[in-house]
Amino acid sequence: MIGQAPVAALRQMTGFDLAAVLDIERATFPADAWTEGMLRGELADQPRTRHYLVAEVDSRIVGYAGLAIAADQADVQTIAVYAEHRRSGIGSQLLTALLAEAARRGATKIFLEVRADNPPAQTMYANFGFEPYGVRRGYYDDGTDAITMMRELDG
Ligand SMILES: CC(C)(COP(=O)(O)OP(=O)(O)OC[C@H]1O[C@@H](n2cnc3c(N)ncnc32)[C@H](O)[C@@H]1OP(=O)(O)O)[C@@H](O)C(=O)NCCC(=O)NCCS
């Protein structure tokens, strides 16, 4: 990714994007996909405490990501890329943009939870300087643990 041209065009998510975003959400997280209502709730708090992005390739939404920001703390709420578009740098583009927005808004720390059985995402987060700091036992509906990760930001 470093030194390469961006693969996708990023822009802020709006309610008009929800059908496309829900397609990715349901394909990516079939067991516990967010509902349209949950996503609308997130967008209702944008820009006050939320920052949601979509990633487009050839004008088609192929990924999205969301950030929550409260005072000096930020949380990666979600990030997903269509399977056929993975490993081309789009997840990194989205995460880079979330980190920049968190820093721009004055957050000094950014947190996330990731499934213990999701090494690809854990690797991406580790590449971005996130460090594991705890485990939430049985956090997900199917009993899988969540690994909590954190990274300091320059603010
Ligand atoms: C996690 C996810 C968003 C990454 O998106 P992506 O577009 O593939 O990310 P990138 O191409 O920018 O890859 C970033 C780095 O993550 C790591 N990575 C990503 N997928 C990986 C895999 N399958 N195996 C090992 N490392 C992987 C690599 O280090 C990769 O860099 P590299 O390709 O230069 O080696 C994507 O895999 C996804 O949508 N997964 C399903 C949803 C999900 O798990 N979301 C996170 C929930 S916490």
TrEMBL record:
<dbReference type="GO" id="GO:0005737">
    <property type="term" value="C:cytoplasm"/>
</dbReference>
<protein>
    <recommendedName>
        <fullName>[Ribosomal protein bS18]-alanine N-acetyltransferase</fullName>
        <ecNumber>2.3.1.266</ecNumber>
    </recommendedName>
</protein>
<dbReference type="GO" id="GO:0008999">
    <property type="term" value="F:protein-N-terminal-alanine acetyltransferase activity"/>
</dbReference>
<dbReference type="InterPro" id="IPR006464">
    <property type="entry name" value="AcTrfase_RimI/Ard1"/>
</dbReference>
<dbReference type="Pfam" id="PF00583">
    <property type="entry name" value="Acetyltransf_1"/>
</dbReference>
<keyword id="KW-0963">Cytoplasm</keyword>
<dbReference type="InterPro" id="IPR016181">
    <property type="entry name" value="Acyl_CoA_acyltransferase"/>
</dbReference>
<dbReference type="InterPro" id="IPR050832">
    <property type="entry name" value="Bact_Acetyltransf"/>
</dbReference>
<feature type="domain" description="N-acetyltransferase">
    <location>
        <begin position="8"/>
        <end position="154"/>
    </location>
</feature>
<dbReference type="InterPro" id="IPR000182">
    <property type="entry name" value="GNAT_dom"/>
</dbReference>
<keyword id="KW-0012">Acyltransferase</keyword>
<keyword id="KW-0808">Transferase</keyword>
<comment type="function">
    <text>Acetylates the N-terminal alanine of ribosomal protein bS18.</text>
</comment>
<comment type="similarity">
    <text>Belongs to the acetyltransferase family. RimI subfamily.</text>
</comment>
